[in-house]
Write a structure and sequence with these properties.
The chain is of the alpha/beta class. Helices cover about 50% and strands about 10% of the residues. The protein is built from eleven helices and five strands; from the N terminus they run H-H-E-H-E-H-H-E-H-E-H-E-H-H-H-H. Strand 3, helix 6 and strand 4 form a beta-alpha-beta unit. Helix 4 packs parallel to helix 5, helix 8 crosses helix 9 and helix 10 packs across helix 11. The longest helix is centred in the middle third of the chain and has 18 residues.
Amino acid sequence: MPYYKVLKLNKEPFSTSPDPYFLYPSISHRQALQRLEIAVRLKRGMSLILGDVGTGKTTLSRALIQVLSKETGIISHMIFDPAYDSEFQFVTYLAKVFGIRPAFRSVLDYKEAIERFLFKKCVDEENIVVLVIDEAQKLTPSSLEILRTLLNYETNEYKLLQLVVIGQMELLPRLQRIRNFADRVSLKYILNPLDVNETKDMIDFRLKQAGYDSGEKLFTEKATDLIYQHTQGYPRKITNLCHSALEELVMKDRNTVEEDIIMEIVERDREVELIQ
């Protein structure tokens, strides 16, 4: 039986999968999502979301796609791992994502086909086409140049493609070095780690989403303070530590995660790091 069933939960509360259902709406994440929705609906062109590893960027991207998919007239596409070696590979994949057929022999042919596709969908059919790119720090200079070209496709009133680029902080200086690219960014937002209160709220939120309703705190105040201290508010680290804590809780046949359990996990992880 899964450990969460022993705790009378319906789901795994601290899975690291990017499930929008478990996206804790911190101030930072909520504002990012709201601003992205506005930028897309106003057809502003390119939006840039940056954050360190483990700040919840991928989950945020899934949440955005989920929200947009419910809107009539918005066609959204997503690229999860944009690591392509050449312009031709990248435009070929873009065409596949957009459902463009047939295949073409040159980058220029693909660019023209994508422009025709965007004009048809956005102008003739009055849709909004959104492309979300996660892990955008993996984009090569040639792929970034393709995106810069796509942002040139526009009417007198708006950009044809609504581009949402999500990546680690290292992406920003790369974009700034590309002429006529950084100034195309209509929205730039940085996701920050959670503060101590948000860390506690995130833990409670995910437990509630998983079906916990006993009315008693599953984590003591001192335990959550230690969780914040050792994770510094990074959602992925919080999730991993809480997952291990609940496993320990079940194995020790205890009812509450106290600070000794957190300290034991932290010390064990440190020993593993030293061995590696």
